[in-house]
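Hi R.,

As promised on Friday, here is the backbone we talked about, encoded as structure tokens. Could you run it through your design pipeline when you get a chance and send me back a sequence?
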């Protein structure tokens, strides 16, 4: 059976940019039927289509991805997947965003060596940037708290009507649910306001 060209696309449910990846695959010459796509939420990294693709590919095939981070979430994972694909599966990889990462020319030792070095460098840079982003976010939150900025949902100001409805509620003219409905809030919030007003 002749060698095949496969494409792999991964997007999170938040970033709907699969079109950009799919167009890049088609421009490279990957057939629509050979493109595998996973759509994942941020916390979930189970990749059923990727796993199916890994069972399908054979030595001599080529795997096309748009960018190196499609292979994994972090430095170790990317390098491990690269090793499995190129060494264990003996499949060529083409990274469209980085022409140096093209291992199809297996006999070209220099090319393979350069691809491995570039991959390690890129993975390291990507992982370092992710750590820096998390650190900047944590520092930003800490600085905001120090300035007294309230993070999270804004507190709702208690409207004047609440005090009238509270009296009617306490004299048992209306229920918690009825009072909350008039104010457009939840029954829990109404009861919390009642407790706050008494304290």
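Update: got your reply. Pasting your designed sequence below so it's all in one thread:
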């Amino acid at each position: 059976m002749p060698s095949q060209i496969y494409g792999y696309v991964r997007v999170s449910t938040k970033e709907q940019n699969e079109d950009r990846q799919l167009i890049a695959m088609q421009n490279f010459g990957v057939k629509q039927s050979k493109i595998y796509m996973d759509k994942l939420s941020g916390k979930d990294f189970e990749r059923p289509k990727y796993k199916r693709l890994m069972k399908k590919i054979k030595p001599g095939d080529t795997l096309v991805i748009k960018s190196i981070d499609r292979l994994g979430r972090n430095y170790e994972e990317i390098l491990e997947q690269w090793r499995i694909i190129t060494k264990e599966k003996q499949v060529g990889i083409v990274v469209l965003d980085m022409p140096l990462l093209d291992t199809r020319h297996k006999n070209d030792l220099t090319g393979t060596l350069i691809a491995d070095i570039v991959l390690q460098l890129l993975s390291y840079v990507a992982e370092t940037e992710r750590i820096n982003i998390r650190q900047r976010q944590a520092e930003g939150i800490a600085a905001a708290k120090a300035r007294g900025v309230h993070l999270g949902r804004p507190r709702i100001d208690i409207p004047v009507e609440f005090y009238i409805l509270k009296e009617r509620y306490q004299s048992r003219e209306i229920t918690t649910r009825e009072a909350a409905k008039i104010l457009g809030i939840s029954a829990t919030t109404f009861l919390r306001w009642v407790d706050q007003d008494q304290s």
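One thing I noticed while checking it: Helices lie at 18-28, 48-56, 75-88, 109-146, 161-170, 176-183, 187-198.

Thanks again,
M.
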